[in-house]
Amino acid sequence: MKPETWLPHVTVAAIVERDGRFLLVEEHTADGLRLNQPAGHLEAGETLQQAVIRETLEETAHPFAPEALVGMYMTHFERRGTDHDNGGVTYLRFTYCGAGGQPDAARSLDPDIVRTLWMSADELRACPERHRTPLVMQCVDDYLAGRRFPLDFVQTHSVGPKR
């Protein structure tokens, strides 16, 4: 039997601030309703910037224009309820900040999203038990601390077909 190949899950998240409040989603998770930044998985053929634009639109109906990379984060979760635990799952999260446009009222949100909401950092800090992961607050704190990397900090290179 061939051993399972370990691969991290690559995700993106968007920090959208307006008048001191942050755009968040309330979503269904295995642990119940949780708060998160608009976020999701990188899909085949996408750049990280394309993924964060797509995920923000799908989860909030707000168009998103990335302006900077706030940070890259790695987190690990143990898998629950599996007999063949291979050590859990590791996520690499790329968090961008930028401008969010007006929502498209005709657009439906991803099925797991219950609603979007705007919260201040203090409101978010007051309910850590509702955060999807500790990265929710960490990314806001890093953003508020002024952490910004240029968009070209992460390079995307296309590789053509093998010859």
Question: What are its keywords?
Answer:
single chain; alpha+beta; Nucleoside Triphosphate Pyrophosphohydrolase; four-stranded mixed β-sheet; four-stranded antiparallel β-sheet; ribonucleoside triphosphate phosphatase activity; nucleoside diphosphate phosphatase activity; Phosphatase NudJ; NUDIX_hydrolase_dom; thiamine diphosphate phosphatase activity
Here the CATH topology equals: Nucleoside Triphosphate Pyrophosphohydrolase
- According to DSSP, the number of beta strands is 8
Distance between the termini: 32 Å
Name of the CATH class:
Alpha Beta
The residue ranges in which pLDDT falls below 50 over 5 or more consecutive positions are none
Query: How much strand content do the residues show?
Result: 35-45%
Average pLDDT reading: 91
**Class per helix and strand makeup:** alpha+beta
CATH superfamily: Nucleoside Triphosphate Pyrophosphohydrolase
> Which sheet architecture does the biggest sheet show?
4 strands, mixed
- Cross-sheet strand order for the largest sheet: 5-1-7-6
Q: Count the DSSP helices.
A: 3
- Overall geometry: globular
Number of domains: 1
CATH architecture: Alpha-Beta Complex
Order of helices and strands: EEEEEHEEEHH
Cα-based radius of gyration, to the nearest Å: 17 Å
Range of helix content: 10-25%
Would you give an account of this structure?
- The protein has 163 residues and is of the alpha+beta class.
- The protein has one domain: Nucleoside Triphosphate Pyrophosphohydrolase, CATH 3.90.79.10.
- 17% of the residues lie in helices and 37% in strands.
- The protein has three helices and eight strands.
- The strands form two sheets. Strands 5-1-7-6 form a four-stranded mixed beta sheet, with helices on both faces. Strands 2, 3, 4 and 8 form a four-stranded antiparallel beta sheet that branches.
- A hairpin with a 2-residue loop joins strand 2 (17-18) and strand 3 (21-29).
- The protein is globular.
- It starts with 8 loop residues before the first strand and ends in a 19-residue tail after the last helix.
- The model has no long low-confidence stretch (mean pLDDT 91).
- It holds the Pfam family NUDIX.
- Its cofactor is Mg(2+).
- InterPro entries: NUDIX_hydrolase-like_dom_sf, NUDIX_hydrolase_dom, NudJ.
- GO terms for molecular function: nucleoside diphosphate phosphatase activity; ribonucleoside triphosphate phosphatase activity; thiamine diphosphate phosphatase activity.
- Its EC number is 3.6.1.-.
